[in-house]
Amino acid sequence: MQDRTHRSTRTHCGVCILSFKMLLVLGFISLILAQQTLCEMYTSVVNVQQAIAVEKELLKYLNSYIEDETLRLNDLKRFYGKVSNLHANVFQGAGTAMANPLFAYTLIKRLQSEWLNVVYSNEANENTQAFKSGYEKEESRLPKFEDLQGAAKGLMRLQDVYALSVKGLVNGLFQRDTAGGAVDIYRAVNSITLSGDDCFLIGKVAYEMEDYYHSVLWLEPAASLFRRAYRTWNTEDEGSLEDVLDHLAFSHFKTGNVSYALSLSREILHLDPSNKRVTRNIEKYEKILAASPANSDVLIQRPNTTYLQTRNTYEWLCQTLGSQPRHYENPRLHCDFHTNSNPALVLKPMRREVVSLQPYVVLYHSFISDHEAKTIKEFSAPGLQRSVVASGVKQSTVEYRISKSAWLKDTAHPVVQKLDQRIAALTGLNVHPPYAEYLQVVNYGIGGHYEPHFDHATVSTSRSLDILNIEALLIELVFISNVSVE
Q1: Could you write out the DSSP letters of every residue in 220-243?
Q2: pLDDT tens-digit map of 320-338
């Protein structure tokens, strides 16, 4: 996904002119760096990149801990070698060894003192405490649990909107299943595969939302990965095969696949015969199946959204990039150098491409320079806050808008002033409040998006306007980051 600036020009009556690009900004994001508090990290990739620096610090603490523990364990090996050599070479003939009072003395000393020091050494605790102290220094900069939930929801949103294959995502690929096989729709510069625990936590987030459609899709690969690695243990993992199967069994039960829920529950009981709760679940499933034969054709349906009636159209646009214009079929769709009869543009006209007539959408190429885009990013980053929507006379955060925004006045920097002047010359409109909003800079997070909506305000408490019953006459979107696709 791209960072973008957003300028709305308002009037008492009018229509909202939207570019299809507004519907296509959900997706993959180029990163920029800023120093700010990491709150609601998942809503802005600016914050996610900051988290890289935090993990680098944690790596330093872990490396120090490993080095200290390696020294401690090497010393334990030395002690083990010293004592085991005595037992192998000297104490085979115990009577002969005890004839030497020095052997007798050192044996008693080891058993009374040295073993005690080895077993109750504080060195291990000191190393662990030093590692914990380093972690606690960074704790305020770490993502919260809501960030993990938000990131998981973001991946599920990308999965849905772009019809991505979960199998592909697990293998680090952004693919869509088609009749002809899996097709790459995006190739990341760097790729990473997901572990069983990674998949489990995504499925668990869906499970806790009672979204069993997504929980099944993500817990199935989690179970497969944990089965392959059964009886191995990763320190960092939160889940286990038993945990995954437990959540997966209940998810299938809730979707109506009782026979598969029974099969998974029996697998859990095989792994943990003492699990009484699973034993009761098995009895329950068996009674259900005895009363009603199993349905082998259970169709798991994606949950409906309560706030987006145009979901299918919206996702179709994202998946197909909409109906691409064929300029040769319609001469009114054209490219030209546009001045809007404004003297400021005569010597440097805008490169205009008319993309659509209804609605009227125009794309201006090279509207903003790389230097200007970089400046706007730098000046807006410290002010980025979670994007909100109007809710009566108040503003609130919502699931259908996941991003962070900042507002820039034309006095913030000469570049902002120049951009305002360029927009005014191009549109012929007054871009100063109360006729227009300040420049809004938006940075999207993991699966960040703003679903289709009516862009208008109806109360005097609107962020930068003081006009009643206002609507957007025109919205100009300036994309200041490029999507990197190979």
Answers
A1: HHHHHHHHHTTT---TT----HHH
A2: 765 555 666 788 888 999 9
For the sheet containing 401-408, what is the strand order? 385-386, 401-408, 439-450, 4-11, 470-479, 456-457
Q: What is the pLDDT of residue 483?
A: 57
Could you tell me the CA-to-CA distances from 434 to 422, 450, 470 in Å, in that order? 18, 24, 10
Q: Which residues pair with 450 in a beta bridge?
A: 401
What is the per-residue DSSP string for 49-80?
Answer: HHHHHHHHHHHHHHHHHHHHHHHHHHHHHHHH
Q: Give per-residue pLDDT as tens, 261-318.
A: 999 999 999 999 999 999 999 999 999 999 987 666 677 888 776 666 778 888 888 8
Q: What is the residue type of 74?
A: N
Q: Which residues contact 113 (CB under 8 A, 6 or more apart)?
A: none
**Mean residue pLDDT across the chain:** 84
Provide the 8-state DSSP code for 113.
I
Q: In 259-397, at which residue ranges do the beta strands (DSSP E only) sit?
A: 335-338, 350-357, 360-365, 385-386, 389-391, 394-396
d(CA 123, CA 144): 32
